[in-house]
Amino acid sequence: MSNTNEITISVVLPNYNDAKYITRAIESVINQTHKPLELIIIDDGSKDNSIEIINSYVQQYPFIKLHAHEHNLGTIKTMHESVHLVSGSHMAFIAADDWFLPDFLTEAYRVFKTNSELAFWSCASWSAYDQNPDALFATPMNYPKTQNGLLSKNQAAEMLYKIDSWFCGNTVVYNTKILRSEFGPNVCLDSFADNFLYRVLACKYGCGFTPKRLSVWRLRSGSMSNNTMKNTAKLQKIYTMALDMAENRYQGIFSDKILKRMRQRFMFDVLKSMWLSGDASLSLEVTNHIKKNSSSKFAYYFAISLLYAASKSIGKKALGLVVGYLYFRPYDVLNIVKIKTIQKYR
Question: Which of 176, 195, 219 finishes a domain?
Fold first, then answer.
């Protein structure tokens, strides 16, 4: 694909009561080796001193703009709104508690300069625990490429089937025009809206990937995604809507085998949610799914048996604390177990 138009990248920073973190996020954008066209900070009704900190940067840097909400709308609605505020041909989101490494936008610009019509590009990521943000470790994911490159929509679909989502939201840069046309229907998926959107875009348009680690994802126990993961009922509702959208609204984009694999992985996450919340009950939906998918029965029943055994031995509350600790500390180990288990019982 050739590029005939100027590539400009807007960065959007949604913020809600993250005055403790936002300075590092803003500074990481200011210090990019390739400067963005603009940094739009959307404050979603913060009650702390976020506005004061943001305004101090707005006064110093003309490319930084503040868009403030009087009332809190939520992260996903704020992100959807921002798609219509930016001026750049391409755009990236940065969470108030994450940060870019200096060459993040330089690498994105390099890719889009010769492939401007890509739906999105992403890269590998570092992670850091909130308690020690300077101790970086590799975000535990299987990535689709070991070298810079593009994935056609068929290649992206095959990678989704083999390794599941490799997209880190803190590393994605979008084609603004395509994002505007595709984001809206996914807002109802709450904390899963962006990850589901990556799957749609990858399988519909193709995407780019760079294995360099150019951004940092801060792991916080009270984050939006972690709160959803510990709310089994909410998680099941989100996944049910996502599967319905994949099968109906996006009919033809996802193959039958990808839909089947997606369903298996979603149910695995529901089980993980049960461990985190200490809830040993299965919904009718999960039970029916197990009955219909004999290939995954053993894995599910084995997990449930362990859950019940542990509950009886140490109690549900103690179990929740143990599993919660395991989930938040050796983050890489649990994610590798998840990936390997799904691949074994496919």
Answer: 219
